[in-house]
Amino acid sequence: MQEDSLIKSSMNMDPHRAGHYVRQTAEYSAFIPAPLPPDPPLMMDAEIARLLSEADLALGRLDGASMMLPNADLFVAMYVRREAVLSSQIEGTQASLTDVLQFEAGGDAGETERLRDIEEVVNYVRAMNYGLRRLTDLPLSLRLVREIHRELMQGVRGEQSTPGEFRRSQNWIGPRGSTLLNARFVPPPPHELLRVLGEWETFLHARSEPVLITAALAHAQFETIHPFLDGNGRVGRLLITLLLYERGVLSRPLLYLSLYLKRNQTEYYDRLQAVRREGDWEAWVRFFLEGVRSSADESTGTTRRILTLREEDRARLAKEGKASGNLLRALDHLFAQPVTTPQLLASALGIQYATANNLLARLVDADVLVEMTGYRRNRRFAYQKYLDMFEEETGRGLTGKDGTLGTAGEETTVNEPPKLQSESARQLEAAEQVMREDDDALGKLAE
Hints:
Layout: H1 2-11, E1 19-23, E2 29-33, H2 46-67, H3 73-90, H4 97-104, H5 112-134, H6 142-153, E3 171-174, H7 190-206, H8 211-225, H9 232-246, H10 258-263, H11 265-278, H12 281-317, H13 324-336, E4 339-340, H14 342-349, H15 353-365, E5 370-371, E6 381-382, H16 384-388, E7 412-415, H17 418-446
Antiparallel strand pairs: 1-2, 3-7, 4-6, 5-6
Helix pairs in contact: 2-12, 3-5, 3-13, 5-6, 5-9, 7-8, 7-17, 8-9, 8-12, 11-12, 12-13, 14-15
């Protein structure tokens, strides 16, 4: 069956199906993507139909499991943090989930480079939460994409790359030291940027395809357009969850694909490149749908294990007599903040420091918490059994930002030489005026 589907896919193969390269005045060629949906249309063969059905069922199971979570927002925070860690690791950061949680609890981040990594992850969490809140009054749109990028990049490495603004210069993707002439891929030039982004937004709003197919096509197209100087991969992966949440596929944002994409990083990049090079949308869609199915099933399993752990620990703490009420409140706090301190717990529960310290000691005695530092002062405590459910494959990043594709680090995005930028900026100014007018109209519509 797989061989048959590959034959069917090859029948739709057209090197210009996803777009074409255009020679630029500086003697390099940039890729101009064709509008979505693909033409010829996506070949909905038996394999894609099966994967789409299985992914839909898996999402239904996940949504059902999430309905069983009491105060689900407590648990969403951990899912968002894990996605932030994994998506950032795909780009080469070295921060782990524990690093981030200890940083939030006031711990020392260590060396400067690790601190910068953690700050990038914290920004990702902030950008995701910002996007989820903003969807209540603004549709998924270019305006929202820019706002999310601003939240992601503000105050961290890459801040000089104009947070919240589409690029005004040519970038390219390839190993360190590559140039426009030997890059692995060159996205659209700046003067074409707003046109192709407008087509991308039009496709989103047309709702002409099943939601998961739309998410697959839109993510690949966004990565091809590469509209920012930095942060494109993180924004593109973040948009998958926002799209599914906006369309009501999930009542809670509990599906994230970065673990799947990290495990299959080589294939992730290769499938995207095959779309550009060969027009092979079908292979990309199969890869994406398999990621949705497997990620949803894993999240459903995690959700069920969380419920079991919660009931077991609540039953244990309910036997603690008069203190059980505060202990159960503390347990709820730990599901949102599984690394904590007496100060954090006191603030969260509105109790005195001494009371919080006593509660933490009792939680350690009850085998709910472990103390992390070994110190008598400035101690931190971890809900390790809960944390373990999210820490799989969120340890140290792979090898850092060396540009090696598929095995470690990010596909390096480089900016064009200064001598090319002035021409690009002039060509972009007129299009940006149109974008500002569209933003004003969209803001009035949202009001």
